[in-house]
Design goal:
Layout (H helix, E strand, L loop, with lengths): L8 E2 L4 E5 L5 E5 L1 H7 L2 E5 L6 E2 L4 E7 L3 E5 L4 E6 L1 H5 L3 H4 L8 E5 L11 H10 L3
Antiparallel strand pairs: 1-2, 2-3, 3-9, 4-6, 5-8, 6-7, 8-9
Length: 131
């Protein structure tokens, strides 16, 4: 059973998003995503200051099972990256919601919570998925 936190929002592609007080958004992968990926072996993060358009690949995660691109769900600029996960990718397996955050982005335009799923909706999504 995977952890689902109620203080973050979720995407259909198993990323979590936390809106911060300065309107930046912290992005990470969900517990469900890290369990499906298996042992994560490499994380490639973008440069601070890099600007992405909605749908661009901003992060690459490699594991023993797959290589996945994380796509930006809105247009914005990278404010910070969690370089600790590049040096120790297993952090994503161990602490997907705590120390395993990936990047902080500043959206070009306000991001509405209706763009994402709350914890209940994400739980319902997981219940419909077949492994």
């Amino acid at each position: 059973m995977c952890t689902i936190k109620s203080d973050v929002l979720y995407s259909l592609t198993h990323e979590w998003f936390k809106v911060n007080g300065d309107d930046s958004i912290t992005l990470g992968i969900t517990d469900h995503a890290q369990m499906r990926l298996g042992d994560i072996t490499q994380v490639c993060l973008p440069e601070v200051g890099q600007h992405f358009q909605m749908g661009d690949s901003c992060i690459v995660i490699k594991s023993c099972k797959a290589e996945v691109d994380i796509l930006v769900p809105f247009t914005g600029k990278v404010l910070a990256v969690n370089s600790k996960v590049e040096g120790m990718p297993v952090m994503l397996n161990q602490q997907a919601f705590q120390q395993g955050w990936l990047i902080k982005l500043l959206p070009d335009n306000p991001v509405h919570s209706s763009m994402f799923l709350n914890a209940d909706a994400y739980q319902a999504l997981l219940e419909t998925e077949i492994d």
